[in-house]
Design brief:
β9, α7 (about 230-240) and β10 form a beta-alpha-beta unit. About 50% of the residues are buried. The chain has a single domain, classed as Alpha-Beta Barrel (TIM Barrel), CATH 3.20.20.30. It has an eight-stranded parallel beta barrel, surrounded by four helices. It has a two-stranded antiparallel sheet with strand order 5-6. By secondary structure, the chain is of the alpha/beta class. The chain is built from 15 helices and 14 strands. Helices cover about 35% and strands about 15% of the residues. It has helices at about 35-50, 70-75, 90-95, 110-125, 140-145, 155-175, 230-240, 250-265, 290-300, 305-315, 340-345, 355-360, 375-390, 405-420, 430-435, and strands spanning about 5-10, 55, 100-105, 130-135, 180-185, 190, 200, 205-210, 225, 245, 275-280, 285, 370-375, 395.
């Protein structure tokens, strides 16, 4: 049987997400992001198209590195304004039966005790369809908003994350035994205190002495997503993540990252195939190649290169307004998203990147070169990525909403199904069961399993 493709829609509770400037297109509905009907309709379209999930990004802070101020981000709605992604999930889950939801939450500014309850609540309300994208943040503007001078150092944030994971694992997996909830009306016993355990943790960064506030949810620990591709990020992902999100313009670069993650997972005692890898992609599809190129040309008229540079400057911690058009971009160690800068410097394999070259790639207001063509061509490209880069699927970012999703569901999904690489129906069970075809709990090889009673 051919390898089955996995699909997430990649979105954010904001106007402008990845393809900057598309909100100005007359058919775009991104400005309806404050309307629940907008999100419910999206979720129902994705479920009709048998997508595995909706991956909701999030950011704390504002992109203010470009030209040393937030003006370019504010003019172009570069992930500002942005609302909380978690509050969207219950409505979308109520309107669907199978679609999963991966939500981004920054552990740097969220105490593990309250966060664990929030995830358990969503796991209950979605009937086991929630995932957590584990991030540590990268913006100094977020740190200042939280009362700090700047972000903690890049690698030290992962040291904090390691301890954070141990605390939430113990709360989710070790506080309530499976048999603790009795729900016994006759004896008037809701729960058995003898089967509920206090979590005591006193570490370098966190101190907890508490019982988990929620009874066991369908998955207990949500499906764990992670998007760090730096050396330290890959180490963390190999130990903890079930779904890993990577970006890259070139398949050989992504293949090297995936191989390293899978090798490190094996070193950690995990099955490398207990990890699903999703690569970021943008698709512009139409019934024919010519029509798709016409659509791309139409979209390009609204792309914002200024918005794209404001986003990328903050992502890598470099003010590109200070670069000349043909000045080589060099790696500078900082506390931003190190993997994004490594991709065009350390891992560029002799291909020197300049601002001019970056601008040429920003055809739709991002660095992500789109896949453009007929359903057959798009399917060919996606399967080539799977074969050559060893990825399991894609996080598909939006262009013009909702037509980009509707076009993909109407045109590309049937093409993938006809090739036998995409499911015809959802499997039963929780998000973890659908993704991995096994019980809804994490496998014994995962570090969370060591926290179980």
């Amino acid at each position: 049987m051919p390898r089955q493709i996995r699909l997430n829609a990649f979105d954010m509770n904001c106007v402008g997400h990845i393809q900057h400037g598309m909100w100005a297109h007359p058919r775009d509905r991104s400005m309806h992001y404050t309307d629940l009907d907008h999100w419910v309709s999206l979720a129902q379209t994705l479920e009709r198209g048998l997508f595995d999930g909706l991956f909701l990004a999030d950011i704390l802070g504002v992109y203010d590195v470009f030209d040393g101020q937030p003006d370019a981000s504010l003019r172009n709605a570069v992930q500002i304004p942005v609302n909380d992604p978690l509050l969207l999930v219950p409505a979308m889950a109520y309107a669907t039966q199978n679609l999963g939801f991966g939500v981004t939450c920054n552990l740097t500014y969220e105490p593990p005790y309250t966060f664990a309850r929030r995830m358990s609540t969503l796991d209950h309300l979605t009937k086991g369809r929630i995932g957590w994208n584990v991030v540590t943040g990268y913006l100094d503007s977020a740190a200042r908003g939280m009362g700090l001078a700047q972000q903690p150092e890049h690698d030290s944030r992962y040291d904090v994350a390691e301890e954070y994971m141990q605390v939430v694992y113990r709360l989710w997996e070790g506080s309530w035994e499976d048999a603790a909830p009795l729900h016994d009306r006759e004896r008037r016993l809701y729960a058995d205190p003898a089967r509920i355990h206090r979590v005591k943790h006193e570490g370098r960064h966190y101190k907890v002495d508490a019982i988990h506030l929620s009874e066991p949810s369908p998955q207990r620990t949500p499906v764990l997503y992670q998007a760090g591709a730096s050396a330290r990020g890959r180490e963390f992902a190999a130990a903890h993540a079930e779904c890993i999100f990577v970006n890259g313009q070139f398949r050989h670069n992504v293949r090297d990252i995936v191989a390293d993650i899978r090798a490190q997972a094996k070193t950690c005692g995990r099955d490398p195939h207990d990890i699903k890898v999703f690569v970021g992609a943008t698709v512009v599809v139409a019934p024919t190649d010519a029509e798709a190129q016409d659509k791309l040309a139409e979209y390009r008229a609204y792309a914002s290169s200024e918005g794209a540079l404001a986003h990328y400057s903050a992502s890598v911690g470099i003010d590109f307004s200070r670069y000349g058009p043909d000045e080589p971009i060099r790696f500078v160690s900082n506390n931003a998203m190190r993997s994004n800068l490594e991709a065009i410097t350390v891992r560029s394999r002799g291909s020197e990147w300049t601002l001019r070259k970056l601008m040429q790639m920003m055809v739709l207001g991002s660095r992500q070169a789109p896949i453009v063509g007929s359903p057959s061509h798009v399917a060919d490209e996606m399967l080539a990525w799977m074969d050559e880069a060893d990825v399991d699927g894609f996080n598909l970012s939006r262009t013009v909403v909702p037509e980009c999703v509707e076009d993909f569901v109407a045109l590309v999904v049937p093409e993938l199904q006809s090739r036998g690489v995409m499911k015809q129906a959802y499997a039963p069970g929780t998000l973890r069961e659908k993704l991995f075809g096994r019980a809804g709990r994490l496998p014994p090889s995962h570090p969370a399993a060591r926290c179980r009673w």
